[in-house]
Amino acid sequence: MITLGQYNTLNILEKTEDGFILTDNDNEKVLCSEQITSGNSEIGTSIEVFVYHDNDGKKVATFKKPKIQLYQFALLQVVALTKVGAFLNWGLDKDLLVPFGEQKDEMAEGKWYVVYLDIDEATNRLFASSYIEKQLQNINITIEAGEEVDLLVYQQTDLGYVVIINNEHKGLVYENEVFTTLNIGDQLKGYVKKVREDNHIDISIQPIGYRKFNDANSNLILTALSKNDGLLPLTDKSSPEEIYSTLGMSKKAFKKAIGFLYKNRAITLEDSGIKLLK
């Protein structure tokens, strides 16, 4: 079965004036009207495409990369308000609908919102919802202290930043443990600091074990590394302008901080930049 809102690996069945007819193993068919610009386009070749509904309600395939997939969260911008709801730009030709009943707060054109992509079982139509917390559960915790996790920042409170963990749980990064700028919608790596008895989850955006560093610049570099998959293309040969643009610190402060982190075995120094040690 061809699945809406997700990537599907389909076979090229035939080429028509409108594009390529693709099929799955159950012989369900879908049209891809775009040109195949890379790879083999011969009949029988398998290709990966994203599937969604066009304006006529028909399943269509695309090589374009959407900003959100089914049962996931993302920060999207409202591009139009209509009688049926708000429409979001999710990177595809047809905008994504947020019905009025799925808007936690009334949406405004031009503003950005963290939303969840769901499917209406009755109509088999994709839609977005800004009711984030009803899609999260902290009853059956699937993570443990020390584990690296994927985060999406979706709310700021007096205590800190509320984050979505692995598209499943809700957690908190405390304000006094943030040494860089976080914005709503930021996606980054984090670490489970503690799972409390009440199933509240404390999250660190720095590797567990390195929080002993009380130097602000060292913590800022660790945070930047965590947000960039453990790599930063900066060295002691980088220009002061490049270092300041990336980290907001002087070259002198940068060299002192990476020296400290290197001595404490938190990072390695490579020709391409600095790398976070697990």
From TrEMBL:
Q: Which Gene3D superfamilies does the annotation name?
A: Nucleic acid-binding proteins, Winged helix-like DNA-binding domain superfamily/Winged helix DNA-binding domain
Do you know which InterPro entries this protein is assigned to? CvfB_fam, CvfB_S1_st, CvfB_WH, NA-bd_OB-fold, S1_domain, WH-like_DNA-bd_sf
Q: Which residues form the S1 motif domain?
A: 146-206
Q: Which GO terms describe its molecular function?
A: nucleic acid binding
Question: Which is a Pfam family this sequence falls into?
Answer: S1_2
Q: Which family does it belong to?
A: Belongs to the CvfB family.
What is the recorded name of this protein?
A: GntR family transcriptional regulator
Tell me which species this is from.
Aureibaculum algae
